[in-house]
Amino acid sequence: MTRITYSPQNLTLAIRGHAEYAEAGKDIVCASVSILGMTIAQFAGKLKDEGLANPEIIVEKGDLYIDINPNTYTDYEDVLWVVDNMCAGFELLAQQY
C-alpha cells in the first residue's frame, strides 16, 4: 500500500511504498502517484533555481521525501497554493482506486 503524508504547515511530502493495484511495472496507480510526486519535486527544484526555496529532495526506490522550505512567508503562501492543488491529484486517485 502507498502511504502519502503531506504537511501543508511544513510544506513536506512523503510517499512510501507501492500501490499494489497491479504488478510492478504495470501499476497505473503507482505510476500516477509517482508522476504527481516527481512533479512536485521538479517544482521544488525550480524554486531553488529561482532562489525562492531551499528544498530537500530524497528519492529512493519506492520512497520520495520533499521538504520545500520556502525562503519567506510570501513565498510560502504562493508555494502552498501550488502544492495544495498538485496534492489534490492524490485525493482524486484515492477516491477512484
First-last Cα distance:
12 Å
Q: How many strand elements?
A: 4
Radius of gyration: 14 Å
The outline comes out as elongated
How much strand? 15-25%
> What structural category arises from helix and sheet content?
alpha+beta
Descriptive notes:
By secondary structure, this protein is of the alpha+beta class. Helix content is 47%, strand content 21%. It is built from two helices and four strands. It has helices spanning 28-49, 73-96; strands at 3-7, 12-16, 56-60, 63-67. It has a four-stranded antiparallel beta sheet with strand order 1-2-4-3, with helices on one face. Helix 1 (28-49) runs antiparallel to helix 2. The radius of gyration is 14 Å and the shape is elongated. The model has no long low-confidence stretch (mean pLDDT 93).
Key descriptive features of the protein:
single chain; 97 residues; alpha+beta; 4-stranded antiparallel sheet; 47% helix; elongated
